Amino acid sequence: MRRFEDATVVVSGAARGIGEGIAVRFAQEGANVVITDLLDEVENTAKRIADEYKVKTKAVKLDVTDEEQVVAFYKQVEQDFKHLDVSVQNAGIITIEHLEKMSLKDFNKVVQVDAVAEWLCCREAARIMVKQDKGRLINSSSGQGRKGFIYTPHYACAKMGVIGITQSLAIELAPHHITVNAFCPGIIVTEMWEYNDRVWGQMLSTDKKQYKKGELMQEWVDAIPLRYAGKPSDIAGVIAFLASDDAAYITGQTINIDGGMFMN
Ligand SMILES: NC(=O)c1ccc[n+]([C@@H]2O[C@H](COP(=O)([O-])OP(=O)(O)OC[C@H]3O[C@@H](n4cnc5c(N)ncnc54)[C@H](O)[C@@H]3O)[C@@H](O)[C@H]2O)c1
């Protein structure tokens, strides 16, 4: 299926992991993809995608929390590609810490990257989409957008916030035929997953139970109805659907992509 022939799609945090998977899926379906990330790797990821799928790609190293950079980035996208069909706000971070040890700076940083920056990217993408009277904004939430986990109140705050941002913007942008939706990955195997396994594993270990590498995530995966951890491609297919014409009548929604981990 090539539903996005010549569409322009922006994906943030796409040097690796879920973002890379989303960029690959859009490229497979014919879109030109513009990917951003803090990491230098973003250049190689864009080149790999262009070589493999014969689409135009562009890599931009930027920090999604930096207003000046984000504003300049979307202006450049409009200049280079003349239209913007889809913007996926995927960049995210997590830290895991005891309440007494978590600094206000660390709390704010996670909220800035995981919620405020998504709003900022939506604002700048919407400036282009409103002029077109058409567009798709897709925001990354998390299982923690549905239910808080231990030692991550900042992450839960941000990811629950993303759902609110999504609903609010969906109402405001509906008259411009722009849909705004969010997705909640469950346990997806990426570098973030490895960090979660290591740090939560250490913090949840007790004298009776010491978690070795991979054991904590396996325990959580065993409690998922579908009994396996997801891959970035499991997320990407759903994002492509939300960006497609078939999803034209879906807005303000948040979809769990988690093997049944959460059912709310
Ligand atoms: N992996 C999971 O199990 C899981 C579960 C729920 C939600 N999520 C969410 O999915 C998204 C992608 O996660 P992932 O697992 O691929 O993680 P990842 O760490 O592999 O990738 C995240 C990417 O975002 C980039 N990034 C971080 N801060 C940035 C910033 N300020 N500016 C630009 N880029 C920045 C990173 O450099 C990295 O390349 C995140 O929003 C995450 O919270 C992941």
Short descriptors:
264 residues; alpha/beta
Walk me through what this model shows.
The relative contact order is 0.14. Strands 3-2-1-4-5-6-7 form a seven-stranded parallel β-sheet, sandwiched between helices. The protein has one domain: 3-Layer(aba) Sandwich (Rossmann fold), CATH 3.40.50.720. The protein starts with 7 loop residues before the first strand and ends in a 7-residue tail after the last strand. The mean pLDDT is 98. It has helices at 17-28, 42-53, 67-81, 104-132, 153-173, 191-204, 215-222, 232-243; strands at residues 8-12, 32-37, 57-61, 86-89, 135-140, 178-185, 254-257. It has eight helices and seven strands, in the order E-H-E-H-E-H-E-H-E-H-E-H-H-H-E. By secondary structure, the chain is α/β, with parallel strands linked by helices. The radius of gyration is 18 Å and the shape is globular. Helix 2 links the parallel strand 2 (32-37) and strand 3 (57-61). Nicotinamide-adenine-dinucleotide is lined by residues 12-13, 15-19, 36-39, 63-65, 90-93, 113-114, 140, 142-143, 185, 187-188, 190-193. Residues 12-13, 15-19, 36-39, 63-65, 90-93, 113-114, 140, 142-143, 185, 187-188, 190-193 line the site of nicotinamide-adenine-dinucleotide (NAD).
